[in-house]
Queue: 2 jobs
Job 1
Amino acid sequence: MGHFHLTIEAFGRRKSAVVCFWVLIALYAAALFAPVLSAYRFDDEDRDYSYCPPTPVEFFDHGQLVWPFVYGRALTFDENHRRIFTVEKGKKYPLEIFSKGRLLTVGAPGRLYLLGADSRGRDLYSRLLYGARISLSIGLIGVLISFGIGLLVGGIAGYYGGFVDAALMRLCEMFMLVPGFYLMLALRSAVPEDFNSAQVYLTVVVILSFIGWASLARVIRGMALSLRERDYVAAAKLMGLSDAAIIARHILPHTVPYSLVAIMLTIPGYILGEAGLSVLGLGIQDPVPSWGNLLSEAMGIVRIQFAPWILMPGALIFMTVVCFNVVGDALRDALDPMLKNENVTIH
Amino acid sequence: MVMSFFTFWLMHATPGNFFDSLKLNPQISAATIASYEQMYHLKDPFIVQYGHWLLNVCRGEFGYSFYYNVPAAHIIVSRLWNTFLLSLASLLLTWGLAIPLGVWAALRHGRLADRVMNVLSFAAFSVPSFFLAILLLYTVRQWGILPLGGMHSAGYDDLSWFGKVIDVARHLVIPAVVLSLASIAGLQRLMRGNMLAQLRQQYIVAARAKGLTEGRIIYRHALRNAFNPMVTLLGYEFASLLSGAALVEIVCSWPGLGALMLTAVRSKDVYVVMAGMLMGGVLLLLGNLLADFLLLRVDPRIKGTRT
């Protein structure tokens, strides 16, 4: 069995990591199929349903199993002008499957709120799905960009060593020393406020990868430093291969497994970075949802009491980050034969 | 230094400056604005502006906050102290809890307590600070035991000296806990790993063979060696602390440097942003220096050689 299979097997032995891996796959699949899985478009609003609580799907009517449906909701205000939603038992809206290209939704006057509604009566469940597209893809794209820079800088620094290495590493340290959040703020201020959502998205990605590349470059440089001493690199040099070709063909490919771990462990940082920016209103702008700006509604602590479902995006961010960390950690252990001895106790 | 140039360029590259909003105000004459612009060289090309700023910084002048109408240095220093207080509190909390917990988990390696700690630390490590802050603030609001953000209560000025300290400490609890939790988890895992690595070493076997008590082996021999690599982390810890503090400050409305930076960036208050970045950088350098000195004290082996 090859090294690859051994690694997969070692990874599979960590049950929690396997579960987390599939959770991540499910999340990304959900994001990919958001338009089908969601009940409404992300900006489909109905202000009469502001902060409408979740509408449970009913399977029984008068004790009999029927086609699933939801009850209607009526909005009234109490003496303190607080919203009170009452269930209207008279109005029933049967679930519609694959109508208007959506997996689950209900007929026009009724609204399906699987996870409740936000301030403008938009379906949180649908917005979470659409938000996942942004929040989850920012992590991937951001890490790919900074990984590209990291490979280049780390590969060059590690291969040449000496002065080049020292200069590039000082540059990296400079980026790592600056508190990331301040840099994020400063960079964000350089961008006009009136960008459209696609431009803001790009900006956030670029900002995050601009901050993140340094640590990846250091990891790769460390590996390249030891790889360049290998015999096959010397052989390639003797054969007259150019430096660029040696770096690209004989150094960088060998850093891939460990870079994968580094990537897995840095993606959460990007997701958190986007969320942090968006929570403060500096990232993705409403009406386009991201998990960060969905959570910004929970910044008004008072709202949580009568609409606890607005905490949901935070829980999802948490879940995603945990999964990435667990998978990354398990992958590192699976790749690292040193740690195989950890089971040997000394007591 | 390079950072300062970069920030200045960024702030300059953004369209508009603070006076654009003043120009819209009919009560302020064009002449006043022109004189202001003259005063701060706003009309000059960017390199000249930067030159002026740098010169002034060398003279100890950090420029003027257009937004708050006081010298930038003045406002920064007061905020810096608040951030420093918060960072210090969470640093103490982190190291005070993470080291013992790490050692404890290492000594119970593989047992239930270790596994529970492992799961907990993973969760704590992954929870977004702003989310945790929101959750904590909400819980505290339900219970009504701690103040909900800010730094002082309404009647702060009337309190006695001791009352003031208690008041600030009460406000400090939530942001400090939020800020510490993730680093506690990270450090605890590292400490556990270091401790385990040390306990496998030959000199521990030798110490056991010598008949030393278990307590002496662990605390005198293993702990000292396991602790050394942690000290270098202190410097990096400071960077992430400062960075993380900004977000937590804003969510908990703690009047620190991070919250100040946010308003300054939003209102294009150039000199405050500049001074803030600079102060953040200085704070970081000091943190790293401190870590180096500490390492020198803790680990006699590296005396004389540069780390």
Job 2
Amino acid sequence: MLRFLLRRSLGAIVIVLLISAITFFLFFALPSEPALMSCGKNCTPDAIAVINKNLGLDQPVPVQYWHYMSGIVTGRDFTVGHCPAPCFGYSFSNQQPVWGTIVDRFPTTLSITLGGAAVFLTVGVGIGMLAAAFRGTWIDKFFSSLSLIGNALQIYFVGVIALAVFVSGLHWMDNPAYHPITENPVKWFTGMLIPWLVLSIIFIANYSRMTRSQMIEQLAEDHVRTARAKGLSRRTVFFRYAWRGAMAPIVTIFGIDLGSLFGGAIITEFTFSLHGLGRLAVSSVSETDLPTLMAVMLVGCTAIVVANIVVDAAYAFIDPRVRLA
Amino acid sequence: MTSASRTPSQTPPAVPSGAAEGGGPAAPEGRSPGQLMWRRFKRDRPGVVSACVVAFFFLVALAAPLISKVYGKDPTTTYGIDRPGLLNEFGYPVKPNGGISGDFWFGIEPTLGRDVLTQLVYGIRTSLLIAAAATVLCVLTGILIGVTAGYVGGRTDYFLGRFIDLLLAFPSQLSFIAFTPVVYSLFVSPNKETPTYLRVLTLILVLWVLGWMGMARLLRGQVLSLREREFVEAAKVTGASPWRIITKELLPNLWTPILVQSTLMLPTIVTIEAGLSFIGVGILEPTPDWGRMFANGAHYYESDITYIFFPGLAMIAFVVAFNLLGDSVRDAFDPRTAR
């Protein structure tokens, strides 16, 4: 296990380094002038020169990349002052340290993702198991037609309808907003409820369909038949034998989905005007705030890579046939 | 022959190509796999209906100028501003339900007062153009890389595999958003406006570069198993060139996964493109776009909820029809799979 984690972590670091290098190169080398992008549409050559000097953009790109990456570990000194340890540079748009903004925004994305994932995982897997248990009956047919529609729904459509119905129509809730759970758990919950439900609708269809087909496949396996023949109850076989086997692929997909959501549940955040990482990415795109965008990309791809490792480790617990070595 | 295989998209071991076309006098009534597939498909009613719906969308996209001419409106004229009495002082349609009337079948847009029907028709045209181009490019790249990796194997396979892993580790949604302006600035200096055709090209490019990996992976796996089959061995023994083996022996057996995967890919790309336009990094005003209609709808929903239903329901119909079509195509190619 330890060897596995070590090896995978090394691989992950390589991937993150490669992605950061590619992203950095794309952002800072390809566009003719990042300073011009940061300085907007009406900009004097003097202002550009100052920006270039302040940000170290007058140096060659590999050197800049080295400064950037070492700055994350050790901190960095700019002409404007010292930027402490996890230093992702200063934002082009508000001149604040980027890391502070990330730390500020991350809890919102975390809340959306964890709450939404809890809902879509339990409901999706639950529906899938129900459909598999009653395969071929009206229950199964009902849920599979539902998942066909659910699969076609988009957050930017359902979200707006949900707002129109529950917020401005029925006045059941206020507009979704993020309140820290540490300050007011009830407000946190009610503020996040609509985003969670809307986000999960999109995923439930997928998870229920995958669970159903995995369960059906598992129920046809030899070891399940043997367990039935041994005289184990239908319930034990269904939950202890088939379910366990069916979960392995679901966990894989779940890890990938969770990882990519951590990088910003972009459409959800945008639809509900929540200020998470995804929204930060979008606003830094429109303001061509490359340092912020770069930092969000790094956080996003780290999340994906870490999620993949966790998933593979979890896989070994669920399915002992999988060897980690 | 393998018993009911797990992957739904696996083809039967193939009628090695040539057997069907050659015909020979012994065969009483030779039917090519394509004809067999077509016969099975025609009997599948949901499949035919969804194929018609999909065809309808493409027809609408192609015939957008014609529709606009017959209907007598265009997507850019601000009818609500030009003609008094259509919008009230807050900029919302005077008539109920978003201003639906005999003149404006789908109502008019709040504030600018453009015609919703032509906006939607032209929006579908823009989105489908981008999605179709990106899909074609993704499929071709996927075939090229996947078949190469699977057939050549060895070190090539290893490096292509690692390359795919790397691209898959990019947070895709984030990358679409982050790289689109970078590509814009490749073409145009940041202090100039980006022309629409470059925006379209950029979107296609970004969707393509980060979109082909799934297809390549799938095909690589298929080729790995096909490569060991007898008919490929036989072709090799007879001295067929790798090109011939790939085009005449492997590709005919890969059409099912390619087609099924493409029918899944196209609607996904449509929704991604719409998402990009929704958050404002895709196609901008005044070019009509399917996704941007959702952004407008989200803006006006409190006073005019009708507006968002037209693009929304159209998109649901489109995606559902495409998914059903994919299922039917798979069933028609491979009758062994049960739904």
